[in-house]
Design brief:
The structure is a homodimer.
Chain A lengths: L18 H15 L6 H8 L3 H8 L2 H14 L4 H8 L3 H16 L11 H5 L9 H27 L8 H21 L5 H13 L1
Helix pairs in contact in A: 1-2, 1-4, 3-4, 4-8, 5-6, 6-9, 6-10, 8-9, 9-10
The first copy, chain A, binds a DNA duplex through α3.
Chain lengths: ~200, ~200
Amino acid sequence: MQNSTKKAANLGRPRAYDRDTVLDAAVQLFWKRGYDGTSIGDLADAMGLARPSLYGAFGSKEGLYLEALSHYAATTGSAAMRAFETEPDLRKAVEALLRVSLEGQACPDTDAAQGCLLGNCAPAALDAVPASAETLRNMLEATRSRIAERFDKEKANGSLPADFPSEDRADLLFDFIQAQAYRARIGDTAGITGAIPARAKMVLG
Amino acid sequence: MQNSTKKAANLGRPRAYDRDTVLDAAVQLFWKRGYDGTSIGDLADAMGLARPSLYGAFGSKEGLYLEALSHYAATTGSAAMRAFETEPDLRKAVEALLRVSLEGQACPDTDAAQGCLLGNCAPAALDAVPASAETLRNMLEATRSRIAERFDKEKANGSLPADFPSEDRADLLFDFIQAQAYRARIGDTAGITGAIPARAKMVLG
DNA sequence: CTTTAATTATACCGTTGAGTACATAAATGG
DNA sequence: CCATTTATGTACTCAACGGTATAATTAAAG
């Protein structure tokens, strides 16, 4: 054998599940109950896996958790950013970012997870999973720079004044999203939708 | 006996600890590791109590947790609100609210808890301790109305225009505090202090 | 058809979790 | 001094936890 650590490509029994599908189930549980509030047994049940399969695929509870964070960030957690980047009109884009965020956070289904996995659940588990701190900081930085990049493009367009403080306003917008997530998590969503246009105005001036 | 559930006033062996002191220790642990990440054994050690004493005083882990939330709200968690209500100048008061909040959230002591117990830790444990949802909503509502009350008073003074939207701006200010807590929790505090004057201006116009 | 690589299913391991029984200690009231 | 009441300290219960050993499957490769 040339490399004992590398896996053979298509050898062995194929796995009987779809990785993204079982990660969706793990995300739901971590999102509802947090890292420490979710047991491997609950996860294995919800994912439809026996425990050795789970460990074979993800290594440990921490490993599964970190992959669940990334999976969330790549799916539910970034839907709003995709809406923001798709919408051509800047003001509409900012409002869409806030609105689509809220839709992902305040789910009408009563027993679905509320709020944001990264915003409301992961921060409680930083001590249990130290590596997750890096993940959260990266997600924040990525969101901040994607927003600022759009602002810079609009400055080049002339849609925003040349002295528009892209970074500061990106931070402001991020903070609005984060604050929405908190309200959604604890069930205080009454005033949010109505406040969106005013908040978009604070961001764009 | 007239009432079998009521305790006699000063009877029996006196407790050997101060309730507020041991609650401080419990707050620190829940704040650092969250509800599910903190074990009764850890709590008893940190509080300096044997487990039966802990159960005698607080009934259950949930009971201790709920008392810890209230204790935090009455001490660390409301220091900023006290600063806000003490400062006579409105703009300085708003800036003090943001600044003192940050001081409580971003502790220079590296192994102290960061962020906010109510803002960053409790939201992950809503499923484990359903009663805590009510607590969090009450804290939000109390903060919101205390801020709005001050704004209303300043409108009566003439320090704010008569059409100043007190409730909306109270929500905005609350959201800024909540967003600061998130950044402090994950260790992204670089830009916060510098942004405080601009944010106070958004609140007051 | 055999070898090899990977996944699956059952059953288990040692540890830690929350909560408690019971005997002892320390105070008040009579 | 004694009864009553409440708190403390040791030791314990039992369920749930994260993780794994082992053997049976299932596919590709030679």
